[in-house]
């Protein structure tokens, strides 16, 4: 009887060993401070980032601040990770980028009745356009912004929507998802006064980033990408996207 008990225990130990060896095991690492702008708080990009880092042993501490501060302090190394940034060559000189974690259509928004249309960026010259400080759209738009577009800057999309509704702006630039979120909540009573201008200015991809002055920047991004692969394969990412009403993304 005793011999049989030991035999059963040996088989169970073997099964447990096989189960553990079939999935990656990661030691718990230090908590990473992840900085992003307020509009991302509670959204799918936060959940995907937290889940991916968790799978490879990192705890995450999210801080939500104005975008300009998140960007500059992440580059300076005051935050460990910059949450969900667009790729630009200028930023890539200072930041190491992860695989894409999300997609964003960048749109122009106008007041209904303005009937503004455009075929090329030069068509937008006559208009006052609201934009977020230190935010990027595309190389073409960013060049036009620097050279001839009439841009007025704010720290958040809410300010630009208020200025647009008050007639202090003709257009504003923002991600479609963010505009839809705001007009369905904070600006629901005035949603009927606003309309998108087609086509989209650009389709951008979100990435997480780590400053290159961090000696562990390559390891952190490598580990995050590994965690991202894991949650994509096991269905976690798909469940997060469904929860937030986001379509499955081709990244």
From TrEMBL:
SUPFAM superfamilies: Periplasmic binding protein-like II. It comes from the Bacteria. It comes from Hahella chejuensis (strain KCTC 2396). This is ABC-type amino acid transport/signal transduction systems, periplasmic component/domain. Residues 1-27 form the signal peptide. Belongs to the bacterial solute-binding protein 3 family. Residues 37-245 form the Solute-binding protein family 3/N-terminal domain. PANTHER family: ABC TRANSPORTER SUBSTRATE-BINDING PROTEIN, MEMBRANE-BOUND LYTIC MUREIN TRANSGLYCOSYLASE F. InterPro entries: Solute-binding_3/MltF_N. Keywords: Signal. The keyword Secreted does not apply.
């Amino acid at each position: 009887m005793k011999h049989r008990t030991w035999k059963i225990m040996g088989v169970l130990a073997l099964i447990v060993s096989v189960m553990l060896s079939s999935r990656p095991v990661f030691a718990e690492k230090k908590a990473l401070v992840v900085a992003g702008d307020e509009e991302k708080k509670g959204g799918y990009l936060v959940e995907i980032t937290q889940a991916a880092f968790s799978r490879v042993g990192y705890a995450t501490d999210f801080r939500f601040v104005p975008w300009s501060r998140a960007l500059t302090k992440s580059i300076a190394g005051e935050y460990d990770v910059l949450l969900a940034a667009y790729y630009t060559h200028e930023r890539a000189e200072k930041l190491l980028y992860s695989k894409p974690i999300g997609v964003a259509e960048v749109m122009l928004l106008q007041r209904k009745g303005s009937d503004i249309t455009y075929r090329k960026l030069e068509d937008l010259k006559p208009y006052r356009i609201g934009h977020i400080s230190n935010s990027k759209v595309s190389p073409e738009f960013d060049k036009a912004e620097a050279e001839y577009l009439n841009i007025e800057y704010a720290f958040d999309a809410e300010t630009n929507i208020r200025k647009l509704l008050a007639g202090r702006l003709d257009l504003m630039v923002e991600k479609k998802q963010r505009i839809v979120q705001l007009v369905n909540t904070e600006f629901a009573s005035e949603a009927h006064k606003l309309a998108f201008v087609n086509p989209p200015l650009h389709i951008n991809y979100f990435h997480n980033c780590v400053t290159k002055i961090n000696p562990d920047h390559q390891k952190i991004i490598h580990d995050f990408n590994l965690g991202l692969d894991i949650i994509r394969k096991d269905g976690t990412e798909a469940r997060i996207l469904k929860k937030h009403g986001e379509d499955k993304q081709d990244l």
